Amino acid sequence: MQAAAAQGAVGTRAPEARATARRPRALTKSGDPLVWKWVVRLGAIVAFFVAWQIYAGHVNPILLVSPTAIARTFGHMVADGTLPTATLQSLEVLVIGFGAALVAGIVLGLVWARYKVVDWAIQPFVSAIFSTPLIALVPLYVLWFGFGVSAKIAIVGSFSFFPILLNTYQGAVSVDPTYRDTARAFHATERQMWRHVTIPSCIPFIAAGINVSLGHALTGLIIAEFYTNASGLGGIVLKSADTFETARMFVPIVTVMVLGILLMSATRWLKRAVAPWAER
Amino acid sequence: MSVPEDGGRAVVDPMSAREDPRRAAGGPSVAPTAVRCDGVSKRFGGEVVLDNVSLEITKGSFTSLLGPSGCGKTTLLRIIAGLETPDHGEISLSGPGAAASTRPSVAVVFQQANLFPWKSVYRNVAFGLELAGVGRDAVERSVRSALEMVNLAGTEKKRPYELSGGMQQRVGIARALALDPEVLLMDEPFASVDAQTREELHDELLAIWERTSKSVLFVTHSIDEAIVLSDKIVVMGAHPGRILREFDVLMPRPRTEETTRLHPEFADMRHAIRELLVRSAVDPSGDGAS
């Protein structure tokens, strides 16, 4: 067990570091740690599904359905168009809501970092809203925006806004002072300082904010689809639960899960691509 | 304070009367000054970091500021670079362009190279020129020649973190050279590279200096480094930060690390500076020169 954990830790490093880090620990004797990591990982996943499949055969199918039943239903729902349509509905809300939060969060974060007055004015509001469970505001959004798409976009937007805002601000105020000095020594104007130093320094922070924010956006999406008119993937979950179609309920859940995994991986890849220096 | 008015000017080296070959080569009899500091004082909180420091850097000369940590040598360099403002005293930079508000006549090389990791080597070296609004072709020409000067041609597309510490520092030097400044301000640029790389960089810097006739102000805490590189060594003491004495280094040029270390004057000078620094550390209230 301990060996597996150690191998896992080694395996998560950058490829070039792995080769050197491995040598002194003599893990080569038990094989390539990367191979081991994936053997253990896949084994755990297979074991989980096998156990689920066996257990599901012994309980009421309303409470739990087997993975194979979910897969079958998944196929039907893709074929009859319900799943693609719902996914597109959800994606529309997600993209617009998250996109608006991204732009607003970055712009406001930079303005907040730039002007002391804004900092003084905004602090209490940010702390207040940051400490409030945003779900408590959902009925208010319904009151303001109704039950349609605009309410859903507002909910997703407000759920994803804060991590971006806070990270952008944090990035802009924690620029390495030696970089500022360097730019000043080369007579950078304020505009040049922003363009060449502050904003590039923020990129890794913003990327981390996006990662957190996407998780919040997905939560906001499902909540929105539950509490406004039931549409999209969340809508299918709600309707299927009402009619005890458990397999139908699981399909959108799995879809959202896969969507989440894809989005997170995409952000990590994006961060590596746009801010490779922050990886070390 | 206890430092006499002319304390910073006392040149005691008996060889100092010898003609500097650089000055003799067609220049005016009185060498023009590139940087002049007049009675510069600076406090941080209660600490007097610089106490009435006056200093002149002859155009085209290599001057080192040498002293223990806390003697204000880096602060003085930062004041000359415009990164700090003195509480008292004046800095004047002569030469073309010095009157302009943008002070294009100095460029700084920092201790940790301070390259921007989000920029390629090319963009880092081009940084000062791009800020100044220099045209693309002129930038390219300057960057290429600056990188050639530090023997880094071909690394344009690399990112700073792909380079060794010594190479990063070379890029830092190229970034300053690309501006073609009158004065190069170097803040312990080789303090964080390994000993062998440091010696290589010394030789390279000496060669660059021979070729470009820049005025250099070089901050260091290494006596050997100061002797190998400099025409003039300004020895500073701490608490308060002040100039103890100036030494003229008259070993022949062109120099290399090796030839300078083997020169008979090297050991004498090393000894004299060491004595001075030890004495001032033991008795900080004295001016150390008496």
What does this 3D model show about the protein?
The complex is a heterodimer of chains A (280) and B (290). Chain A is mainly alpha-helical and 280 residues long. Chain A has helices at residues 2-11, 15-22, 33-56, 67-79, 82-114, 116-131, 138-145, 149-173, 177-185, 190-227, 232-242, 246-274. In chain A, helix 8 packs antiparallel against helix 10. Chain A is globular and about 75 Å long. Chain B has 290 residues and is of the alpha/beta class. Chain B folds into 2 domains: 1-105 and 184-194 and 209-290, 3-Layer(aba) Sandwich (Rossmann fold); 108-180, no CATH class. Chain B is built from 9 helices and 9 strands. In chain B, the strands form 2 sheets. Chain B has a 6-stranded mixed β-sheet, with helices on both faces. Residues 1-29 and 97-103 of chain B have low confidence and may be disordered. Chains A and B meet through helix 9 and helix 10 of A and helix 3 of B.
Largest interface: A-B, 21 and 24 residues
Query: What distance lies between the first and last C-alpha atoms of chain A, to the nearest angstrom?
Result: 28 Å
Helix content of chain A: over 70%
Strand residue percentage of chain B: 15-25%
> How many structural domains can be distinguished in the coordinates of chain A?
2
CATH superfamily of the largest domain in chain B: P-loop containing nucleotide triphosphate hydrolases
Work out the number of β strands of chain A. Answer: 0
Q: Give a short account of the largest sheet of chain B.
A: 6 strands, mixed
User: DSSP helix count of chain B?
Assistant: 9
Strand order of the largest sheet of chain B: 5-6-7-3-8-9
What does the radius of gyration of chain A come to?
24 Å
CATH architecture designation of the largest domain in chain B: 3-Layer(aba) Sandwich
CATH third-level topology of the largest domain in chain B:
Rossmann fold
